[in-house]
Amino acid sequence: MELSHLDQVDKEIIRLLHNNGRLSYAKIGEILNLSRVAIQKRVENLIDNEVIENFTIRLNAAKLGKVVSAFFEVEVEPRFTEEVGNQLSDDANVISIYQMTGNSSLHVHALLKDEAALEAFLYQNLYKRSGVVRVNTQVVIKRFKQGKRLGL
């Protein structure tokens, strides 16, 4: 099911849940003038068709002691790309990994406790890892927007 195949009610349900994933089916039904059961069936259909992948929360990393947000462009020998990506996926500090076009590279985002943790992550998880050719590190100094909106 693609966005173009969604009717206006489904798009509005998605918009409402996107803004507040905690809205109840009853509240959404009240807003859209539909029954709770109708909303529940539509949401279940959106989940079954993988339009909605999951419901989650966003945490404030700094309040949880993770004050360094860093992005790593990790150039990897092509034969090691899958292995390195999977290994880094197991690290609790890593919040996202994407394989990128161009040189065989992985784009890694990690949240770390402090500069010492950043240094340890670089040396233990990246520089010493088999297949890693080069690492370019960028530390976030200010966030203007965090990816939540899909622009529906």
Automatic annotation (TrEMBL):
Transmembrane segments: none annotated. Keywords: DNA-binding, Transcription, Transcription regulation. SMART domains: HTH_ASNC. The keyword DNA repair does not apply. GO terms for cellular component: cytosol. InterPro entries: AsnC-type_HTH_dom, Dimeric_a/b-barrel, Tscrpt_reg_AsnC-like, Tscrpt_reg_AsnC/Lrp_C, WH-like_DNA-bd_sf, WH_DNA-bd_sf. GO terms for molecular function: sequence-specific DNA binding. This is AsnC family transcriptional regulator. It comes from Paenibacillus silvestris. The lineage of its organism: Bacteria, Bacillati, Bacillota, Bacilli, Bacillales.
